[in-house]
């Protein structure tokens, strides 16, 4: 608990709708309010020092010092004032509350009306001074707008020249490396990815022994061979920490020559890999596992859809596949063995307690002009689950094997008791009665199994999911509650995730007998910061993906004002409900005005997920079908405002 006069350090968050803000404290449930007069020139996301004070029984924070300015970019329209020797920027981002002036020496070729990216250079008496770092050109162009979102979300549009120069010098030295690695080119190997994937991280080989045991090989691209520590490419990869997947393009963590060429496990080419080899016994558990440096030559590049079609016998031997190859008996046999193993492993997991949700993800299809063609659901095949299960086996095996060394883990904490108790109370509204005793993974799996046949299954599963914590990266292993595993690390996607690359680096040092005590101390000191950075970037990437999704949704619906839509109540807050439309778009319907809370007919009861109208006695419950009308479109705040159709 905070004490009056206590000094705290964390991030300042600027409110979008007012001059005030909040101090976001990592270990506290609630943020500290910062009055506009107590901001001390702090900008959104700055690291600050503040003093806690109590005012009218409420705890607030007064910012006393700016520890570190957020290295962020702001984007919008440039208005030039040549006769006064400066320009200024018309910012539409509601988080910026100051005037933005740019001296002529920092204009960087921008001209009146351009959309530009700016960064703070200095702070004078009242307002910050800025420098234009990039000119995005065309106003009201979808590509320009989305590029602005990217820059404001802390990501980059392009790689610096010095990074690309370093990449150009990299050589494909598989021949030179062969004598130091295990030759796995004799294994029948294939990749399974989406139809439009270009960065292929992982490949599979699977064998069935005469005694009924299986040998599973998960081959992962050896990115760490090319990304040397201290190099420009490695530094840039750490800054990005993750690839970002948008409807129309990917913002890769690595330059294309690495992600799509040197490291990508493209078929019919020899590639450097790290292989996790697992012996799976008759009880369908990993009996032995080992990790080693290897090189492979993938025989096939397959898609999820094709693998599913082969398993279900919809396509057969000599049928042609998407990327030109024809199906052979060997391929069909290997796919069937892989499915056989997956089904057995899956069965054991279900028996032991498995948390498994199957929520539809929104796929936005856009044309070449970035106009939305349609919203639909991502197709999910059983082959998606096959890859996920095999990757989980490899991730767990690697994490378990190297746990006595400094390592990065993917952890998922146990849910909070108060959240579980709240869930149990809500479940009773749906006539689902469940007594929690151990609060463990198996108990939650039993609950999920119990609601499978419930008419409101999907909303109940969402309520259960919202009770659980978020997974993060950590240098301290506390296990993974969701998967019910004591050991779990991200090992299988080093092309698109920095944590995977980081543990590859440690693994390779250990395998080559170079993990000295000095290096162990180095990693002990750096991994906590690495885990924090990777988690932060993952969150930023997710927020950017959501923002671009919202932009496309607003563009799609902006000419549909006053049209009516049927949707399902998918969530509730005290002032309104979330409504999921049939095309998977989800938006908020305000029932109670936050500015005028008293003047309303609607009474919320969030504990039982229901609103009641005092006059008409109409009830709106979770997962109920309702009709809404699109009232307005806010293209600046990326919001659609719906109203309830009486």
What can you see in these coordinates?
- The protein is of the alpha+beta class and 646 residues long.
- It folds into four domains: 7-68, OB fold (Dihydrolipoamide Acetyltransferase, E2P) (Beta Barrel), CATH 2.40.50; 74-139, OB fold (Dihydrolipoamide Acetyltransferase, E2P), CATH 2.40.50.700; 163-407 and 489-548, no CATH class; 564-644, Nucleic acid-binding proteins (OB fold (Dihydrolipoamide Acetyltransferase, E2P), Beta Barrel), CATH 2.40.50.
- 28% of the residues lie in helices and 29% in strands.
- The chain contains 13 helices and 31 strands.
- It has a five-stranded antiparallel β-sheet, with no helix packed on it.
- A hairpin with a 5-residue loop joins strand 28 and strand 29 (619-621).
- Helix 9 packs antiparallel against helix 11.
- It starts with 6 loop residues before the first strand and ends with a strand.
């Amino acid at each position: 608990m905070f004490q009056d006069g206590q000094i705290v350090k964390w991030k300042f968050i600027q409110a979008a709708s007012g001059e005030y803000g909040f101090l976001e404290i990592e270990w506290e449930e609630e943020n500290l309010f910062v009055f506009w007069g107590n901001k001390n020139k702090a900008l959104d996301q700055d690291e600050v020092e503040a003093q806690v004070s109590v005012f009218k029984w409420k705890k607030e924070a007064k910012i006393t010092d700016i520890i570190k300015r957020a290295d962020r970019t702001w984007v919008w329209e440039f208005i030039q004032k040549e006769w006064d020797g400066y320009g200024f920027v018309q910012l539409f981002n509601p988080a910026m509350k100051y005037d933005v002036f740019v001296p002529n020496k920092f204009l960087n070729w921008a001209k009146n009306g351009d959309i530009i990216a700016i960064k703070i250079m200095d702070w004078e008496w009242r307002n910050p001074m800025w420098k234009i770092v990039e000119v995005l050109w065309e106003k009201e162009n979808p590509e320009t707008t989305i590029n602005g979102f990217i820059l404001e979300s802390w990501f980059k549009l392009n790689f610096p020249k010095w990074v690309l120069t370093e990449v150009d010098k990299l050589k494909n030295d598989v021949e030179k490396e062969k004598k130091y690695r295990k030759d796995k080119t004799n294994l029948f190997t294939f990749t399974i990815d989406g139809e439009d994937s270009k960065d292929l991280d992982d490949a599979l080989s699977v064998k069935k022994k005469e005694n009924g045991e299986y040998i599973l090989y998960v081959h992962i691209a050896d990115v760490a061979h090319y990304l040397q520590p201290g190099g420009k490419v490695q530094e840039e990869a750490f800054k990005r920490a993750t690839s970002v997947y948008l409807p129309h393009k990917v913002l890769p963590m690595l330059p294309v020559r690495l992600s799509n060429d040197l490291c990508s496990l493209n078929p019919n080419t020899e590639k450097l890999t790290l292989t996790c080899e697992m012996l799976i016994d008759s009880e369908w558990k990993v009996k032995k596992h080992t990790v080693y440096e290897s090189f492979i030559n993938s025989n096939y590049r397959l898609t999820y859809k094709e693998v599913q079609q082969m398993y279900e016998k919809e396509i057969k031997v000599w049928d042609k596949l998407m990327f030109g190859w024809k199906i052979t008996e060997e391929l069909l046999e290997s796919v069937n063995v892989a499915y056989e193993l997956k089904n057995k492993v899956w069965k054991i997991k279900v028996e032991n307690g498995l948390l498994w949700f199957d929520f539809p993800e929104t796929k936005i299809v856009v044309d070449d002009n970035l106009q939305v063609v349609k919203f639909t659901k991502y197709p999910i095949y059983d082959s998606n689950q096959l890859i996920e299960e095999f990757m989980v086996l490899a991730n767990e095996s690697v994490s378990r094997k190297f746990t006595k060394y400094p390592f990065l883990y993917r952890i998922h904490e146990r849910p909070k008791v108060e959240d579980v108790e709240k869930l149990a109370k809500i479940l009773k509204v749906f006539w689902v009665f469940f007594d929690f005793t151990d609060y463990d993974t198996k108990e939650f799996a039993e609950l999920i199994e119990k609601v499978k046949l419930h008419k409101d299954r999907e909303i109940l599963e969402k309520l259960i999911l919202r009770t659980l914590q978020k997974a993060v990266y950590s240098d301290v292993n506390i296990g993974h509650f969701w998967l019910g595993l004591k050991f779990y690390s991200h090992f299988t996607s080093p092309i698109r995730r920095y944590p995977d690359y980081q543990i590859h680096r440690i693994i390779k040092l250990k395998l080559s007998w170079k993990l000295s005590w000095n290096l162990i101390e180095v990693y002990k000191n750096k991994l906590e910061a690495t885990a924090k950075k990777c988690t932060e970037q993952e969150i930023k990437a997710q927020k950017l993906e959501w923002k671009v999704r919202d932009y496309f949704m607003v563009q799609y619906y902006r000419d549909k004002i006053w049209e009516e839509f049927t949707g399902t109540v998918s969530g509730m807050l005290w002032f309104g409900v979330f409504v999921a439309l049939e095309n998977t778009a989800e938006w908020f319907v305000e029932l109670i005005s936050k500015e005028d809370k008293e003047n309303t007919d609607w009474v919320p009861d969030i504990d039982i997920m229901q609103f009641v109208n005092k006059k008409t006695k109409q009830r709106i419950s979770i997962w109920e079908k309702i009709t809404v009308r699109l009232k307005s479109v806010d293209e600046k705040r990326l919001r659609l405002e719906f109203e309830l159709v009486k």
